[in-house]
Amino acid sequence: MAVYTQVPAEELARFLELYDVGTLLAAKGIAEGVENSNYLVDTTGADGQGARFILTLYEKRVDVADLPFFFALLDHLGERGCLVPRFIHDREGKTLQTLCGRPACLIEFLSGVSVTRPTPEQARATGVALGQLHRAAEDFTGERPNALGPEGWHRLADACGDGLDEITPDLGARVRHELAFLDAHWPTTLDRCVIHADLFPDNVLMRGNEVGGLIDFYFSCTDIRAYDVAITHSAWGFTPDGTTFNETVAHKLIFGYVASHGLTPAEHAALPILSRGASLRFLLTRAYDWINTPPDALVTRKDPLAYLRRLETYATLPAERLFGRLV
Ligand SMILES: Nc1ncnc2c1ncn2[C@@H]1O[C@H](COP(=O)(O)OP(=O)(O)OP(=O)(O)O)[C@@H](O)[C@H]1O
Ligand SMILES: N[C@@H](CCO)C(=O)O
Questions:
Q1: Which domain, by its residues, includes 192?
Q2: What is the model's pTM?
Q3: Which ligand is nearest to the Cα of residue 212, counting in written order?
Q4: Domain Aminoglycoside phosphotransferase spans what residues (predicted)?
């Protein structure tokens, strides 16, 4: 479920009058997603030919102060040909509004579906799209620190406290051991740029084997570029529960990225460590939500242990099996 705020049709119709998009035809809440309220909105369109948009009301995790960074980033990437949704400007050029008491934006609709079992071709296409995104981000001047980097992991682990061991015995000790390992080995000299930082299959809209759009940039931030490759590898290369590593899918993702952007030998060599960091990041955010969301809440809690399983795979399998050989 992700409709926290119900928007009455009359209010939505008035909201749409701010834009040059025609008048309201239909609006439907979107079930996917957990952070914000999202609606699919159909209008008559500026030219009377019909148009479709996403309406997002920002609920809790997105800080309104960060929105100008996201607006500028998506404008920049869109201008450079990346398949990312544009924020729609109203008649006065404004992007951010208030609707039903929440910060709200009208966003370009991109067609495509999120896949749950990606094929190797879809993984390759996603690797290519990630490489294109990093190329396009090279001359983006905006910056946003990653609150969920190594320091953030320590804060999250402290906030989870003894709750970790209630998820599974000894998880607290495993997390502390991993934090110490990553503190000692986290790379400091790799190239940085603005990264997506959450390019899971549910944030890639596929049209067959082609990428139709990359969405949900609300975790995007300035960080190690190859860390984005590691995050994406950890999300695409495993079954969602983390039990099975799919070597073909995972290697195709890397090959796609190498074809469109390239990885330096140092970046390739760092992937095992970066992927352990990615696993710990999602383990900890999921664990924090697990501990702090009542089991009967409307939001489905994501399983932190799915990322513990990935972590163990990254810590044990040889790099060549995980990432293929750099040619
Ligand atoms: N620009 C877009 N074009 C088409 N569909 C979109 C677009 N933006 C969002 N959606 C649809 O809305 C759903 C929820 O969007 P999104 O992932 O941004 O939500 P969220 O609440 O931020 O969730 P989460 O962070 O959990 O992924 C997506 O799975 C997708 O189906
Ligand atoms: N992609 C994250 C959720 C935040 O968007 C996860 O699966 O834990």
A1: 120-323
A2: 0.96
A3: 1
A4: 28-257
